[in-house]
Amino acid sequence: xxxxxxxxxxxxxxxxxxxxxxxxxxxxxxxxxxxxxxxxxxxxxxxxxxxxxxxxxxxxxxxxxxxxxxxxxxxxxxxxxxxxxxxxxxxxxxxxxxxxxxxxxxxxxxxxxxxxxxxxxxxxxxxxxxxxxxxxxxxxxxxxxxxxxxxxxxxxxxxxxxxxxxxxxxxxxxxxxxxxxxxxxxxxxxxxxxxxxxxxxxxxxxxxxxxxxxxxxxxxxxxxxxxxxxxxxxxxxxxxxxxxxxxxxxxxxxxxxxxxxxxxxxxxxxxxxxxxxxxxxxxxxxxxxxxxx
Length: 293
Fold this sequence. Notes:
Blueprint: E1 10-13, H1 27-39, E2 43-44, H2 47-54, E3 63-70, H3 73-85, E4 90-94, H4 122-130, H5 141-150, E5 153-157, H6 165-168, H7 172-194, E6 200-202, H8 210-219, E7 223-225, E8 245-246, H9 252-262, H10 266-292
Parallel strand pairs: 1-3, 1-8, 2-3, 3-4, 4-5, 6-7
Helix pairs in contact: 1-3, 1-9, 7-8
């Protein structure tokens, strides 16, 4: 394995639980993906190693960063034990306003399947959060503290309420005020409950504009994660536009193939350009359809 990776792909997950559903990777599939990564010689970086790489440090050629969004309980129940089993690390971007109190719940590493918390698909999870039943689907501070202290799953910021203020604020001034408040609350709770300064923010739904970015800069955030898959995270690259690849409920072989096209090679660059072009065409057709409806 050589040093000086040309780029470091960042993988994006949401749920890891047994139900086959959108935005979920089933535990047996997730395990096969981790086994494939390990077997192919990939190394998962800590978020600090990834930040150092963006700032010019060397990392092994086959390096990835594994991330999870929102803070779902199943990330503790299933993903955390599997990462530990395979000697890999992950990063969990948590919506701090959803996090509950109480004792840690069982995981697949210490309980029978029948005794594990119930699994919910993404739409059901959103409904439970909206109705105030967050504890059924969202992590508790005790679980976040355990994972963060272990070093296996590092906890970082995903705002306080996951609200898209660009969509609901009545003015630009209100949008800036609200997103600044969100970021300050989130960063403050991470500092208070996990005893660390957080320089990393993952934008809800991947959306950001210059107002969002300036609010984050003003509070001390330095690294901004998006949901844009078609670019390369290079040494001395743009720390305010970190690309991530959404991982599907598909085989380890699929993931290795996807990582082949995520590498900063001619094939990877052509693949990214083609996928961006297809995405732009889909969005243009959608806008045209809406205009004529």
